[in-house]
Design brief:
This is Thioredoxin domain-containing protein. It comes from Sphingobacterium griseoflavum. Keywords: Signal. The chain has 23 helices and 8 strands. By secondary structure, it is an alpha+beta fold. Among the domains are: 86 residues; 153 residues, 3-Layer(aba) Sandwich (Glutaredoxin). It has an 8-stranded mixed beta sheet. Helix 8 runs antiparallel to helix 9 and helix 20 crosses helix 23. The longest helix has 21 residues.
Length: 489
């Protein structure tokens, strides 16, 4: 390692950047990447950038670009990327830039198809053995665009060209659900069945054969099974649906909750009413109140009347509340919330200090984060529940966006879905650390929610999400009401 690079990296342990594997490089500089000051990060970025002109291989450039991206030195990263395009016009980095800058920015299926053909012409799959997954991402996106436009023929044509069996279910499932939602059951059914069968294959492998690919493929089992079985249920093929579900629960009992909706309907359709009632009761007790009509029907059928139902219903809801209260105890904390001043969609400054005296709910999210998006109907319902309470404020902190035009995308997303949210852009870095607000709050993954009391202290912190609107409403109510009370300590 050259002396000038060591000097620039004096605040870190010594590294051999050009020869080092990416993971080794990131691991050695982890303390600076995660907790370094602005000057430390700038020093590391300068050191990396100054070494670039000595590189011989595309992999060295890839490491440099990834490091500069992590350090958020976009100007240097773009400069290195331009050099790569000139030096390796047929390489994978230039190919990836084309995919990002041309293919993904194309909007219509026809435009994406044109870009895909250009991709194959300039960067054939055969030139990149072991990188077939990069092309599968593109194929899935292309098929999805055609599916959204209602062109099932072109969508399935491109899905059939995918290479990696362990991953293709992502494309098949997304397209299948899109076509199903549009009413094209004929085209959706074989796609969902393929996804289900693939996932079943991987989930049924002996434990010693389950690598990361197998585990990834297995994750789609419940969703594809639920969608496919839902088609069978709608067609009245209850026995076939039930056979598939019970087969699934044998090899993957952890999927029981995800399959509960189609399970009870299949049990009901085959006359197994008591079992259907038991599954329904568990669903309702977990906050899925949309099944109440069926629950009432079975209650009256099995009990001969509706006598006692009100008491039974109240008991289920009280049990759920107790369960939520026990659950949120695990999320308790008590520490001052980092102060902030962020701009909203109108360009106005919103500060935490200005909200003192209110319980504040922070929801960190991004437009690309599907779990975040799935929780929004529930969060909207929770916010509506407190619409007349001036002592509660919901703030939706948009963070970790990947595109330069993210602000326009955020506005478009909020307007399209008509969410009445107060959205703040998390793009103002701390001058001392260079961190955005998410990092200052210790966020490692999104969605992440913080409940801050009237005195500015974080009382609860939770990650993950649920698509269950009723459950989110009840959970947020318990969190907010608990935060209104004085801290026990």
């Amino acid at each position: 390692m050259k002396k000038h690079l060591l000097a620039a990296l004096a605040l870190t342990t010594s590294i051999c950047y050009a020869q080092q594997k990416p993971n080794d490089l990131f691991q050695r500089n982890r303390s600076i990447l995660e907790n370094g000051s602005v000057s430390q990060k700038d020093s590391l970025a300068n050191a990396v950038f100054n070494e670039v002109n000595t590189y011989k291989t595309e992999e060295q450039y890839r490491v440099a670009i990834n490091m500069l991206r992590t350090l958020e030195h976009e100007d240097k990263m773009e400069s290195v990327s331009k050099t790569v395009k000139k030096k390796f016009p047929k390489g994978s980095l230039t190919r990836d830039a084309f995919i990002s800058d041309v293919f993904y920015k194309a909007e219509s299926g026809a435009d994406k198809e044109k870009a895909y053909k250009e991709l194959l012409k300039k960067w054939p799959v055969s030139n990149f053995p072991g990188q077939e997954l990069s092309y599968d991402y593109v194929l899935a996106n292309l098929a999805g665009a055609f599916a959204t436009e209602g062109n099932a023929t072109r969508a399935t044509h491109y899905l059939a060209q995918m290479h990696e069996r362990f991953w293709r279910g992502n494309g098949y499932l997304s397209v299948g659900k899109t076509l199903l939602a549009a009413g094209d059951t004929t085209a959706a059914t074989p796609l969902l069945k393929t996804t289900m069968d693939d996932a079943y294959y991987y989930i049924s492998l002996p434990e010693e054969q389950k690598d990361n690919k197998a585990r990834f493929a297995s994750m789609g089992y419940a969703s594809s099974m639920s969608s496919y079985v839902g088609i069978l249920v709608n067609q009245g093929a209850y026995a076939e649906a039930l056979d598939l579900i019970e087969k699934a629960m044998t090899v993957a009992p952890e999927q029981a909750d995800a399959l509960a909706n189609v399970y009870y309907k299949s049990l009901l359709g085959t006359g197994r009413k008591l079992e259907a009632y038991q599954v329904l009761t568990k669903l309702y007790a977990k906050g899925q109140f949309n099944v109440e009509d069926d629950l009432k029907m079975l209650y009256a059928d099995l009990n001969g009347s509706m006598k006692g139902y009100a008491r039974f219903n109240t008991g289920l809801k009280n049990d759920l509340i107790k369960s939520i209260q026990e659950h949120i105890k695990q999320m308790e904390t008590y520490k001052p919330a980092p102060d902030f001043e962020l701009r909203n969609l109108k360009g106005e400054i919103v500060s935490l200090a200005s909200l003192k005296g209110k319980v504040v709910v922070l929801d960190f999210w991004a437009t690309w984060c599907q779990p975040c998006i799935r929780s929004f109907p529930g969060m909207q319902a929770a916010q509506a529940m407190y619409s007349t309470d001036d002592n509660v404020q919901f703030l939706f902190i948009n963070t970790w966006e990947r595109d330069k035009d993210y602000k326009e995308k955020v506005v478009s997303f909020i307007d399209k879905n008509q969410y009445p949210f107060e959205v703040l852009y998390d793009d103002q870095k701390d001058p001392a650390t260079g961190q955005v607000l998410a990092a200052k709050f210790g966020v490692k993954g999104i969605p992440a929610k913080f409940i801050i009391d009237a005195n500015g202290n974080i009382r609860y912190f939770l990650t993950g999400s649920s698509p269950n609107v009723d459950y989110i409403k009840m959970e947020m109510k318990e969190l907010i009401e608990a935060a209104k009370k004085p801290h026990a300590g």
